[in-house]
Amino acid sequence: MVKKSFLVLVFSLLLMSARSFGFASYVSDYSFSPSVYSGAYSTGYRTYRTAPAAPSSYANSSLVRAARIADQRAHPHSQWRCWQYVKDALLQAGAVSSRPKTAYARQAGAELTQSYGFVDTHIRDPYRAPVGAVIVYGGHGAGHVELRTEHGFASDYRSRYRCRYSQIIGIYVKGSQSMEG
Fold it and tell me: Confidence band (pLDDT; 50, 70, 90) for 38?
């Protein structure tokens, strides 16, 4: 018990020393309160909200099923296969009639709207997206795609926080559920 307390004390002192010498960004990039699930966390230059979806904010039942399937299959960390995992979840849930053919995540929105009857919600805040919505990001190479779940987001990995890519191409739902936001 004494050794454990001593180690905690030494580690705390080392952490404080590192911060005083300007190594704070290496020691801790994130600061958040784990007891406040629906609060926010900050990376020092951008604040992210962590609110779960509102209970009344659900897309159609097949998209909600797809979100649950994606959440169940998701890994703790990215496998770099987001669009493949989302395609599988959409197909198994019956949200699409056949497997989408596009290769890149950033192409997902165009294919879903042209071939499968999805519409852009015009919402640009992923935290306001209904559960089951397909969120498509551009930017970095192939882009990223994820499904809004009841407690966050899922694709090949699950997270309480939105993807950090800044460019949102669109947030899509099945049918005529367009929502202004």
Answer: very low
Residue 175, sorted as left (phi over 0), alpha (psi -120 to 50) or beta, turns out to be: left
Query: Do 34 and 95 have their domain in common?
Result: no
Selection from 73, 85, 66, 30 nearest residue 150 by Cα:
66
Q: Phi and psi of 29, rounded to 5°?
A: -80, -25
Which residues form the domain of 16? Answer: 2-49
Beta bridge partners of 127: none
Query: Could you tell me if 149 and 86 are in contact, meaning their C-beta atoms sit under 8 angstroms apart?
Result: no
Q: What is the pLDDT of residues 106-128, one digit of tens each?
A: 999 999 999 999 999 999 999 99
What are the C-alpha distances in Å from 89 to residues 24, 27, 153?
40, 37, 13
